[in-house]
Amino acid sequence: MDATPSSNEQLSRYISFTRQSWEKLRDNMPLTLSETRLRALQGLNEHVSLQETTQIYLPLSRLLSLYVAATQNLHKATDTFLETTSARVPYIIGIAGSVAVGKSTTARLLQALLAEWPSHPRVDLVTTDGFLYPKHTLEARGLMSRKGFPESYDLRHLLQFLIEVKSGRPTVTAPVYSHLTYDIVANEVQYIQQPDILIIEGLNVLQTSRMRSGKTARLFVSDFFDFSIYVDAEEKDIERWYIERFLTLRETAFRNPTSYFHRHASLSIEGAIEVARGLWQQINAPNLRENIQPTRERAHLILKKGPDHRVQEVRLRKL
Ligand SMILES: Nc1ncnc2c1ncn2[C@@H]1O[C@H](COP(=O)(O)OP(=O)(O)O)[C@@H](O)[C@H]1O
Ligand SMILES: CC(C)(COP(=O)(O)O)[C@@H](O)C(=O)NCCC(=O)O
């Protein structure tokens, strides 16, 4: 008998909110942000409407804020019991989902909103692309068309980074990736210095993948998460968003001569759509189906977007 729970069984572990029922939760919450502050945040995320920020993401930031406070209190309780003073340890939130589903936008918006709550003002954000192997290594291993697949990441390095952050080290560094050069940036690192909250965003953060040696990893990235979010949408919508973003980049970033995709800046619209669809169908769609979507039900919260990026449904796991 198959002991793996079916997708329906897994989803029944969640409380499901329609957009309307989620919005109503705002009534129970002290949403203290002024209209002026919200508009300033809007400037950081011009893609997300003010209505979406207020109705979906602000309640979510409130929920997360309650969880952070509860965890901070738990640490205090342990300290009282043990008569110790532990190092400050960041609360870690993982954000997973397909390429182009809107992970970065969601992560940046939550970073800004969470920083507004006085009990945890310092919120840092790290994207897992910094832990991809450098381009020359991917080329040498024949992995350039497997970027974003589990084997394209230095998982050991990512786990080491998380161990250091969670052990309360005052300064931890993360490598940096450039979408412009399509490569790790040599001699550049991001410093993480005991923020109150650390958001880790990436395709792979809920995966229970194998090490390159073929052995199953003993530790998973998600073991370090206090909370995790999966950003979900229909594949046909994500493909369209991917192509739209590619067309925008053709008119902006690709014009830069140092861009890895500079040669695509001179393509016709039809030519650019063909290239983008090819990248989607050969790399990102198989990765979504094989490695990303199967991790969805590991998340504490699932945000399901409609064709216009507006969240249609929120599922919260019964803890
Ligand atoms: N909430 C949103 N509302 C409108 N557009 C969005 C939203 N989130 C993302 N987008 C757009 O969708 C595309 C992909 O978003 P991005 O955050 O870059 O995705 P990812 O980090 O998952 O690759 C971008 O062009 C972005 O502007
Ligand atoms: C860099 C990425 C693997 C995303 O990495 P993440 O930050 O999610 O770890 C992805 O954006 C990517 O480059 N995919 C390869 C195919 C493509 O160019 O779309």
UniProtKB/TrEMBL annotation:
The keyword Glycoprotein does not apply. It is an enzyme of class 2 (transferase). Its EC number is 2.7.1.33. It catalyses: (R)-pantothenate + ATP = (R)-4'-phosphopantothenate + ADP + H(+). One of its GO terms (cellular component) is cytoplasm. It comes from the Bacteria. GO terms for biological process: coenzyme A biosynthetic process. The gene is coaA. This is Pantothenate kinase. Its main location: cytoplasm. It comes from Ktedonosporobacter rubrisoli.
